[in-house]
## 1
Amino acid sequence: MNVAIIGASGYTGLELIKILINHPTFNISYIANSTGEENVQELHPCLKDVIDVEVSKADANEVAKVADLAFLALPHKTSMSFAKELLNLGVKVVDLSADYRLELETYEKHYCPHEDKEHIKDAVYGLPEYYKEELKSSKLVANPGCFPTAALLALFPFIDYIDTNAQIFIDAKTGMSGAGKGLKEITHFGHLNENCHAYNPFKHRHMPEIQEKVKLVKGVDCQINFVPHLLPITRGMLVSVFATLKEDVDVNKVLEEAYKDSAFVRIRNTPVDLKSTAGTNFCDIFVETNEKALFVNSSIDNLLRGASSQAVVNANLMCGLDEEEGIPIIAYVP
Amino acid sequence: MNVAIIGASGYTGLELIKILINHPTFNISYIANSTGEENVQELHPCLKDVIDVEVSKADANEVAKVADLAFLALPHKTSMSFAKELLNLGVKVVDLSADYRLELETYEKHYCPHEDKEHIKDAVYGLPEYYKEELKSSKLVANPGCFPTAALLALFPFIDYIDTNAQIFIDAKTGMSGAGKGLKEITHFGHLNENCHAYNPFKHRHMPEIQEKVKLVKGVDCQINFVPHLLPITRGMLVSVFATLKEDVDVNKVLEEAYKDSAFVRIRNTPVDLKSTAGTNFCDIFVETNEKALFVNSSIDNLLRGASSQAVVNANLMCGLDEEEGIPIIAYVP
Amino acid sequence: MNVAIIGASGYTGLELIKILINHPTFNISYIANSTGEENVQELHPCLKDVIDVEVSKADANEVAKVADLAFLALPHKTSMSFAKELLNLGVKVVDLSADYRLELETYEKHYCPHEDKEHIKDAVYGLPEYYKEELKSSKLVANPGCFPTAALLALFPFIDYIDTNAQIFIDAKTGMSGAGKGLKEITHFGHLNENCHAYNPFKHRHMPEIQEKVKLVKGVDCQINFVPHLLPITRGMLVSVFATLKEDVDVNKVLEEAYKDSAFVRIRNTPVDLKSTAGTNFCDIFVETNEKALFVNSSIDNLLRGASSQAVVNANLMCGLDEEEGIPIIAYVP
Amino acid sequence: MNVAIIGASGYTGLELIKILINHPTFNISYIANSTGEENVQELHPCLKDVIDVEVSKADANEVAKVADLAFLALPHKTSMSFAKELLNLGVKVVDLSADYRLELETYEKHYCPHEDKEHIKDAVYGLPEYYKEELKSSKLVANPGCFPTAALLALFPFIDYIDTNAQIFIDAKTGMSGAGKGLKEITHFGHLNENCHAYNPFKHRHMPEIQEKVKLVKGVDCQINFVPHLLPITRGMLVSVFATLKEDVDVNKVLEEAYKDSAFVRIRNTPVDLKSTAGTNFCDIFVETNEKALFVNSSIDNLLRGASSQAVVNANLMCGLDEEEGIPIIAYVP
């Protein structure tokens, strides 16, 4: 089955290439970025002698000729106009941008006017543990944000036990790769090395994404207070969910029950760390209480479970394959 | 004025030496560790050609002969028996261990039986912003823990505005130097590099210290839920306090008011970072709200404001000096 | 084909497990360390839900029952006594220790008395680019040291053009994983982070290994002057070979010619970096001259090409498989 | 004595400010960058509550009114035109750029046409150990490059014992701050973290600087082969000089003799590390031999001994002060 990768220059594009090279069913038939005219080995020198494909200037008609499904690793706004073309040409789309993640009103409030209102309502939110059946018949998947992936997997199992009149706080920490390959002050080595700080506290655009999904999936309307931090590491993401329990409950049992059939969620009995999930699609979760205070602690690889490997799981489901097919599970340890 | 440093082998001992070398009034007359018979340049090769003092095997009678005040950078339990001797010999003590930080009952619950009950009630908690007058006449100062220092400086100004029936959460991140120079798995480079994780969530011994001081200083009995994390950096500490406001309040005004006379607290209008305080005694604080949700964000150097430079501030006050005398304020940037 | 991994606790043992899980032909039938009685998921928590095998206390007879070939990731000295047993029981051995790398006299001078003189002369040095034919019929392979692997692959193509009366210098830099998982001062995070230094200059035991192989493979008796450094990173190794050319030569052509048939050597036209080889079995090489001065610059993953993946290449050859079978080629980038 | 800092935005400008704040004699009377109209606390937030000075748009006439000496932390080319003005106005200059470091011909070959030929021959090369007397009467000091500082301090003592017909190799490693605060791909965190590589091998502009000074100071015309590497750390520099001795010599005695009167060179009996010199003006040196092969190993803080603190030592000498006045000697350890 032929697939295309659009937006091959960035980190998530590279991760898609790396996963799909070893995928038993998907075959990379088209790689594109905004400029083209380069071999993928020049674009990503680490791929020398590994894969030999030309990088094209992205063109929807070309994609439609050679691929059944396209992964879009594009900036938001750019993504929806390209997705629209592909969908109209009958190509399945897994969109890694924010463009189809939110309901129209939420999207336009936090991002920009939407340019593909036709398809937005068809998009399935690509968190496989909670949307598996919908994903199987979907033609357009909105791959979740990295923070929402780790936060929702931690929060959902407990939402029924949480006092949602009390504040819910999420303190999240991400490696710098979440900020992308572009040159920015916050990702300058001299700034980030031996440093750590919050950014956009209570204002990050993943906050409304988390809040909206809690409402859609669990029917609970509550205020999520989200503070992300930048860590001086390259990959990995750690999330602390702090909430108040309504009553005593065996939190580990709740967690085990919630994910007993999940291939990619591992329950831990010690606090989760970044390294055990780096390089994999796993989400590790740990839970602890202090009387009514609840601490749910999750870890993912922000580029994989938070982006590219989750995208391939979604593509597996869309194409009738086993969700585990070709998905990385072996961690970057040490 | 002659001072002694007992426990010179560890990180906080080294920081004390580094500060006191340049102190205009204090003169290091005695340096000791548990073994002695070494020059301080052998113990800390970075001090070659900087200071030339023998390291003695710690002996309280020798200290009393040559110093008016002693800094104890010893493990808890070891510290109280040494402090007791020094106090009985008339030597002033700044104790960097936990031994005199807590009320007797709290201490014995979380640490071990206390061996110097006589002096524990004389000890002043060395957080200068809140105990300045008591420090000026004190002969025994209990230097606060690193996490409590950063957490209390963030929390105290807001305690009157916080709904203390709602949960208060503290998510803290520390550099590895807080774990000391001894060889441990969690401070092995292969474990910590490119990693991050919580440890002792809701069970760390700094949690009762924070809770007790909130009660003593502010008269408020509330549950503090504290989760520390280890960062892959050497020095620095970041604290997030999450709480619920009772009512609308101008949080920046509260903060400015609380610290308008403080030499070592800086109010920031962007989230605080580690680097701006590393190498200094400053505590930087930033505050943000989301309706009733409160986020107070503080940063200190865990070895300085969280230990050694705060100890010297306390010694300055105990000896009638200006609190700013000889205190480092120039950050390790870049 | 069933294989055993002896010495599963350390970094190279873990890397062997990670590679062999995905190997198309080899099946891990036995995993052991010095204590046993543990599941491999407890030993390496990152393997939770990935592989479910008991870790045994190493026993040669048990190995012989269930495996045709064993990888020994043991300390030197321990390794040779275990290898001896296995070889006598008819099990093929890939030994990752130093025990069979050197000629007897060299070994005993730099390590300790040898305890398996019988087999030492049968051992083939497992650098596939230079010993491929011998490896195919070998029953005992001595897997090269990490530094010698990177140094010899850089040096061998040029040895005929180098003035071996002039000094040859090798300045090498390794990530800390080369120093192993045990707790040591030099691998304490507080020591190594933001630091870098040479160790054992001109005295490291990989120096005689390099020198001996230059003599054996190329017939050239010359003095190699080797200085390794420790880098504040986890994995990767960079080698600078500095030598003097006898005459003008097209060094890039020499390099291309030497490795035109090598699956795992990549010639670069810019200086090599660590990241492009991390996670893979590749050795990247770059060469530059300044009149008669020669700089050959190679990069490998010290745990893979410098240990575990090279071991699997060797096992592939010993078992009549394609050398590329199951060998990792996708780098840890970013 | 009033001094000016021109070029305050970069790392070396900040280091100058940090040193001069605590200098007992020099008083910062003027700080400038290319834009001005900002307080230094906005330019460098770590200086909040530490120093309160306006940053001006650089103007030579203004400098001449308020300062006797100016430190120029400007890019090369920009620096010489500003220096020329200042010198003509009678202001002493310590220039941290490359503009006055080289003889005219060498400069123009490796940089660009020189715009202040009048003063270039008056410039004294600011390596105090070798130019102390000349510095005392100088009005224009060319502060050495970071690599040449570490390399020459290592090389000079041995030059008489080295066979200069054999190749001399220098393998150097620098922290990223040497590459400056500007956004570049090689200093992007995603590129540099967990990475290391050479750059400009045999082509870096510090190579002719080293070569020229060996000729000028020691009268020896030899080829220096210089390969710098970038390390994934912020500050510090390590240099390995590899050469061939003409005869047996007690290398430690040579080193001790060379620097017996030097306040800022420390001879080590183990390989030097970055941390022991970080934050200081020290150059640590270690030497080892392997028969005729020589390894001289030096460490400096690239921003201090390699730039700003050496500049202040030079200013001290130019102004008749003790060279040690106000110079940092306490390392960033841990």
## 2
Amino acid sequence: MKIQSPDSSSPKKELPPVLAELHALIENDLEQTNRIIVEQLNAQVELIPTLGSHLINSGGKRLRPALTLLTAKMFGYSGDQHALLAAVIEFIHTATLLHDDVVDGSLTRRGSETANSVWGSKAPVLVGDFLFSRSFQILVSHGDLKVLEVVADACAIISEGEVLQLVVTKDLSTDEERYMQVVSSKTAALFSAAMQLGGILCKRSPEEIEHLANYGLLLGQAYQVVDDALDYSATQETLGKTIGDDFQEGKITLPVIHAYAQGNEEERAFWRLCLEDTNHPEGGLQRAIGIIKSRGSLDYAMKTAKRLADEAKEHLKKFPASEERDTMLKLADFAVNRNY
Amino acid sequence: MKIQSPDSSSPKKELPPVLAELHALIENDLEQTNRIIVEQLNAQVELIPTLGSHLINSGGKRLRPALTLLTAKMFGYSGDQHALLAAVIEFIHTATLLHDDVVDGSLTRRGSETANSVWGSKAPVLVGDFLFSRSFQILVSHGDLKVLEVVADACAIISEGEVLQLVVTKDLSTDEERYMQVVSSKTAALFSAAMQLGGILCKRSPEEIEHLANYGLLLGQAYQVVDDALDYSATQETLGKTIGDDFQEGKITLPVIHAYAQGNEEERAFWRLCLEDTNHPEGGLQRAIGIIKSRGSLDYAMKTAKRLADEAKEHLKKFPASEERDTMLKLADFAVNRNY
């Protein structure tokens, strides 16, 4: 089994400059992380590494493990445990994606077929469980209870967020606050944990770790808000998954919350029909995109994301300038300005 | 939300004497465990305790947490952490059942509707993830890395066993050794972990913990072998789930492995049709039960279970006689002689 390195894993498009810069900065660390991923995916049952590497190899940006590695490097870490913790972050991310895709019935991700579309929904549930378990085995071998606490807390928050997302699906009474709660839990909690692990590893003060956690949380929020906006604005080719998935599934995201609040009676009836009854008229997605644009709802979402990213940067600016810090500052801008 | 105590949770039938004795012996501990389960199921998202308690309340025998409690009591434990660890064992058991029932598409368990039959398959996947995560949060608060190691290892083994079971489904070349590997991983690993936690908590020697682990492993194996035999011999009313589920799903269990090996050409063709092609002729299950009886395959499975239970008891006999030990000895016999 070959795990591709992140910079060779996405043949369809060039890496944007900030990601290329980021990968160059921690190239060796990422390679070490990839080696650990291969080792730790090993199991007696061949389907586990096969299915696991299908997703891990599929050209993800390795953003979350990169945060752990960049943070460790920013503090001059010289040991070999950072790659182990980064691998755990990627495993947990992968486990949540496997379960997500089963729950959503998604057929494509990152331009490839999802695991459930290749193997059916049974194996991804169980391999996801394996990745969670293996993550905790690795953390036990690392032996730091504080690290275990951060990861266990993040996992609980993520699963709670996923359940919340399920509960608010098709419910147009969902407000922005509730939406941000979903975003914070299901996505931003792992960004935050990834940052904290770097800080804990380097024995930083609780105050510093708090800034790292907040940067991660706000970056993750901005990232997910943009993700949700892209579902109504990107092209399928650049996004690597089907456009309008959220719309089809009745997910209530920020553009919709804004457009629904601003809409006239007829538009609101349209949203209810599509999202609450998931009864999609011919051309429904195009009409949804049209309304969202005309109501300024994409602009609103992007402004929200920019505000979160700017706030994220403030927390990072508490640390002295360094290549790693400055790359993470740019990463916050990239989270907002990307088109996939 | 009310979590029923185990002895009031199964209104349909009287507890068999050994379970009544067992519950009486650790009544307070089980009550404390149930209180912790209620507390720890709490989450901001109401669906989590609702769905979790649906299964936890459904009249399970609480065998696995009882093992932790009995072991702690056998060693005279006087603290309050045993109930916490027992609750974790029940959470992990519940999480695996939630995921199992989704993977198998099962509609009934313990005589009630499964969570996936009430809420669909999405929520049980995510609530299962929550229970895993919450378990590790609890263990981190307990703070013993050895306990964390035992549980993380058990979880990895369980999920690996579940994947293996998936892989060998509908594959009649599965032999007894491979079958025992599935049984050991998916079921017996948690029985073994439950025993070990009791021993670790009471700071027993590695050799003693090894005996506890082996008792749990062998007990769990015997228990699952009987479970699989009951799928061809019990009545639906006593079993609390649909008879012939394994047969319908193409699961290759010990009675089938034996009957297939002993069968004539016509019987083997029947097994291939039913289990590999899952093409079930009218009256297929009745014919399968008939063949299994006539080939002595149920007897073979029950003898195997009895041998495992006897071996389990040998490990427990290394410890001085006590009410707890003797109840666990009887429990090994019950695992074999039960009819549900």
## 3
Amino acid sequence: MTVTEIAPTSAAALEDVLSAAHGAAAAWAQTPARVRAQALLAIADALDAAAEELIPLAQEETNLAPARLGGELKRTTFQLRLFAELLVDGGYLDARIDHADEAWPMGARPDIRRVLEPLGPVLVFAASNFPFAFSVLGGDSCSALAAGCPVVVKVHSGHPRLSAAVGRVATAALAAAGAPAGLLALIYGTQSGRDALLDPRIKAGAFTGSIPGGRALFDLANSRPDPIPFFGELGSVNPVFVMAEAAAARGAEIVDGFMASYTLGAGQFCTKPGILLVPAGSGMVQDLAAAARPAPALLLNERIQSGYVDALQELLEHPDVRPLGGTEDALAAPPAPSLAATTAAALLADPEALITECFGPAALVVAYENDGELLAVAEALDGQLTATIQGEDGDALAPELVRILAGKAGRVLWNQWPTGVSVTYAQQHGGPYPATTAPASTSVGTAGIARFLRPVAYQGLPAHLLPAALRDDNPLGIPQRVDGTLAL
Amino acid sequence: MTVTEIAPTSAAALEDVLSAAHGAAAAWAQTPARVRAQALLAIADALDAAAEELIPLAQEETNLAPARLGGELKRTTFQLRLFAELLVDGGYLDARIDHADEAWPMGARPDIRRVLEPLGPVLVFAASNFPFAFSVLGGDSCSALAAGCPVVVKVHSGHPRLSAAVGRVATAALAAAGAPAGLLALIYGTQSGRDALLDPRIKAGAFTGSIPGGRALFDLANSRPDPIPFFGELGSVNPVFVMAEAAAARGAEIVDGFMASYTLGAGQFCTKPGILLVPAGSGMVQDLAAAARPAPALLLNERIQSGYVDALQELLEHPDVRPLGGTEDALAAPPAPSLAATTAAALLADPEALITECFGPAALVVAYENDGELLAVAEALDGQLTATIQGEDGDALAPELVRILAGKAGRVLWNQWPTGVSVTYAQQHGGPYPATTAPASTSVGTAGIARFLRPVAYQGLPAHLLPAALRDDNPLGIPQRVDGTLAL
């Protein structure tokens, strides 16, 4: 791995970036959605065309394999194209038209029309673990640009040269597509990120990373004289609940699926299943101890590797935790995938220490004695990105467990694995704190565009002053809710 | 006015309230939306039936006239009934179904379905100025109950006995409708409100009131180990821009409309137009000075009256502000409606002092010299609930002014007045900070329900474990977005 640092953005350069983003906001917001869609397609095409340059750079800076990086780039450009479709559909605008109505029961109502409009320049803090899909042109930037907002990306220090290259390709594509200058810019260094977050020209923040880092930025965004929305995706242990019937019916299959999921990408996924609950006495603990593990793999960078080793060591030093396999090489470099084991009773006695994210190829296996313990662990959880049930149809406990987990997690899975987050219309990648700082938002899927929009109502405006989305003749051909009834 | 204090809620009583709200959350969330709708209708009927008890109590505690209070109660019960309709419609759930698709371009996608679910117990801080519509069973409580959330109301100290009576009527109606115990409760006293906001069982806060009070609670909500969404509606000056053509064509009519709007309810509306921009030399300043004013009226209570007098006095002491009429009795009790005057140049030189809310029957008239000054004032605004244009069709400046104001305000009006906020599907009562702490939300209108919901995705669940809203057979008959396409 070779990471050449890029100098931090100077205060003068940051001022230029913010000034240009502010300057681009009005023009981009007024650019018709179909034209914004063309610009997203232009970026997607340009990134695909640059794959042969970008993937080796990404590999050099992140230790990730070319095949995985190729898939991630494909996901990234697919996402840009899907958001381009969304812009043409127009349903995301939530256009509402209430005509004036003398007979409105609370008293005559005026003509009021409401549509979602862009928030203004968005500051995106790139993540380390997906150098394409959650970085310079990842889901946050894609959502914000689609929404009509300029984007300033605070580059992740783990892959600065790749970021610069992606930024160069994308800004060239945007310029060729006629987008306003300053619409997308990159900044480098922790201080420039903090300074930008406090600048009044920035109207929202987005972040993917650790709980301490995300919380610090969330607090900073809220400390402003004019606080702004901050969409942080922080931490999650993504628990998996194996029910007794499932363990009996297909314990070995579940072990295989779990081993593959928690070690995928060397355990560096935000949806890595970090806790697996299995019935005590089912034999699954022994099967997990004996299961074959993939080879050791370098983590993204040395800082992440040392953080991982520290967290795992602390977990293993807990008096109620024992190594379950793989631990002989777990603290080496590169680390071998490893498991630790405890009981549900121990977990419930010390949830803060044991329900904790360990970013890397490790997980905690928790043996539970009965249904009561299983439900108690579910109730003890903090907010999660995902929660998974391995169960059998007709399990009497399942409805209650689904209900509890739906209150804790953004996504509840049944007999599947949480890693591999598909970009779709119904995807939800979020959850209550600390999974995110904004429980009503998602950072994956088309609904992510809503983060960077705010409603504006227009009362009594003549047609020529209304946004096209709100005209009675519906020139954009989008869904409109007219007098309370949705019309397509 | 007679306000008899009610003792602050004790720590033990608060614990009972929070415990009961937490206990009611699951049952209410699982109550079918149509049954929740019946409960809202039961509250509406019970409040209407209790009008003869409630309105005199409200009059005693707030100095507001019976006719106004009767209209407000009607608005409040209408709102409950409108939200009941919304629950039956089901569009607010934003139900999305993505079937599994092997051919999905980024790679095979699983079956994922997403719906909005209640956040959990909501703490509502009642407002002083609308003792029905923004208080115990006002828009915040109505939205939260409709969403499926228990509600704890921190009663406003200005109308405690009315609040207790409304609470008693509503809880009896809920009990008769079969709602879970603890679904709605009242607490009294500043400390109990702060304590409740910090309690982990409270999952969101809502507030209507002053900028300092709202900001303190917003900061408290964000200081929690697990920060929660806080929907605060704080302050707004609701500027009105009179364009030159309109001043020439119908200056006298605009003066009449403005006088009626800024003095409505003794100027104690959050949408009171507090700043009126008029063309210098148009004669409007003189017309405003000479206009007839309604009689002096008592404000809601002595604290509000003294706060108003202090704010107005400070404004009048500004070197660039002169009294324009009514000021001889403006600082008396009850205060006479009054106007002050300044210039756009002075306003732009000292916006912090001059663009400031003065809660009560006063407004600032600002003479501008040219279009450039008009646009500069628009650009200098903070976030607003409303911004109004008085213009003529075909005005060349209007499109630019609408665009700027849409970036500053939640609602933009044309040739109407901002007071009188209709409860409709397209209403937007919100705006960037300091108008609110959550620019994407509204506290009036059916879209207000979204504040108390969060998305949950279900991946791979068998039909019998899915929420009814997400089933392929659509038993609720609600709008569903299926594989990206909205179906009614």
